[in-house]
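hey
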């Protein structure tokens, strides 16, 4: 049986709401759905959002038409559930004013016009246990500062740089323009890169 045939069989089972196939789906994608939820709501709320999304996904599977990948389809359901959670709390994701902050980015020499780093953090040589410990501490520092980013920046950064979602998909999930998404992503990258630079210079978060 080819990969394509296997995928078709699995999709058919999912549309039929086969519990075994659905369990495999949950095992495969639960972690990724948590990343999407955490991009929009706080980590403490993400698990609840994802659990609610799984219920919605199971109920909607018979109607899945395959116009997008099932992963993208599920990401959209989770993002809608997370945004619904914010609305219930009378909160909205606060999108930065692109025109206001764009001037700050134009002066940055860290990034190329396509959004990639022109010069990333200094390379570390992992030749000692001390270096390994330092990398672990740096990771914790980045995660701490990631949680402190404005909701909009964190959302776009996680979806683009962690989940590798296309910008168009992210814009559809979050209801923002492509240009605004690029600005938010750039600002998040600048903030986190400054954290890395500071840590490497001082050894402190």
């Amino acid at each position: 049986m080819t990969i394509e045939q296997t995928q078709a069989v699995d999709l058919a089972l999912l549309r039929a709401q086969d519990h075994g196939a659905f369990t495999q789906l949950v095992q495969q994608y639960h972690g990724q759905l948590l990343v999407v939820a955490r991009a929009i709501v706080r980590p403490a709320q993400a698990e609840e959002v994802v659990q609610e999304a799984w219920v919605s996904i199971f109920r909607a599977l018979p109607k899945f038409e395959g116009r997008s990948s099932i992963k993208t389809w599920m990401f959209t359901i989770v993002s809608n559930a997370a945004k619904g959670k914010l609305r219930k709390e009378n909160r909205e994701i606060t999108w930065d004013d692109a025109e206001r902050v764009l001037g700050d980015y134009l002066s940055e020499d860290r990034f190329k016009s396509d959004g990639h780093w022109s010069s990333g953090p200094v390379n570390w040589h992992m030749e000692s246990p001390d270096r390994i410990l330092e990398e672990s501490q740096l990771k914790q520092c980045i995660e701490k500062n990631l949680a402190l980013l404005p909701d909009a920046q964190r959302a776009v950064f996680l979806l683009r740089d962690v989940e590798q979602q296309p910008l168009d998909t992210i814009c559809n999930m979050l209801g923002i323009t492509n240009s605004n998404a690029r600005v938010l992503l750039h600002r998040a990258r600048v903030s986190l890169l400054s954290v890395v630079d500071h840590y490497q210079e001082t050894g402190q978060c």
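Residues 53 and 77 are 6 Å apart (CA to CA). The chain has two domains: 3-88, 98-202.
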